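User: Predict the complex with magnesium ion.
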Amino acid sequence: MIITDEQKTKLIKNNLVYMENIRVKFGRVVALDGVDFTVGYNEVVGLLGDNGAGKTTLIKALNGYNQISSGNIYFDGRHADFSSPKDARSAGIETAYQDLALVNIMSIARNFFMGRELRKGFAFFKFLDKRQMNKIASRSLKEVGLKNIRAMHETVNFLSGGERQAIAIGRANYFGAKLLILDEPTAALSVTETEWVLQLVKEAKEGGLSVILISHNAYEVYDVSDRFVVLQHGKTYANIKKEDTNPEELIEVIAGRLEK
Ligand SMILES: Nc1ncnc2c1ncn2[C@@H]1O[C@H](COP(=O)(O)OP(=O)(O)OP(=O)(O)O)[C@@H](O)[C@H]1O
Ligand SMILES: [Mg+2]
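Assistant: Here is the predicted structure with magnesium ion placed in the model:
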């Protein structure tokens, strides 16, 4: 889509995320081939597409995990050139990865604070403030409904998929993120856990956050999303407001049998 400079300035201002003409290559594989993507303020965008469509690559381009070979990214009105997910996190982007990048051998509290650990003491005598971290993590995780965990110093090995997602969402709430990215959050969850995670997405939106919700399943994410972006073979295939579609139609679009 060709737009004027004036239109572009407006789009950057009115959206939390504005990505234009994004290309990402892995060797000779072109994973993203000129993708445009936006997320509004306080908007939930369902990012859909078949296996290998480029969904994960797109959000990893946004949060600095993947380097882009061309294109532009703006976040919250500013040109964003994050060189790592840690950079993106300090700017307000909290990501829960598809492979649930929690560090299994670390405690729940350490995973909650990952990269933002609290310390006490001074100068060369700084120690991790484990007690305070346990307290804060425990309180924040209770708020997102994580009730059954025994202790914050336990490692995350034993947590279920839903509980792992809840840690990411609790972290976003506590650290005041502006954007929460959930990559296939319900892929391995039971029905009850799926409902819980989707409810947390609703609450995140009510709390003022924007959310990118990646999924294969149009039925699952339809309710909580405001808009859908469908990727196909590394390109933007459709961009549809919720009121202009329904889950049955979205399935056809994802499969490439219907153009919208
Ligand atoms: N690190 C990598 N090295 C090489 N190719 C990669 C790498 N990461 C992704 N790709 C390729 O880029 C394309 C897009 O992959 P991506 O993981 O973004 O798809 P996806 O839409 O998230 O799929 P899924 O629904 O299976 O998670 C695929 O062809 C994939 O094989
Ligand atoms: Mg993926």
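The pocket of magnesium ion (ligand 2) is lined by residues 55-56, 98, 183 (CB under 6 Å).
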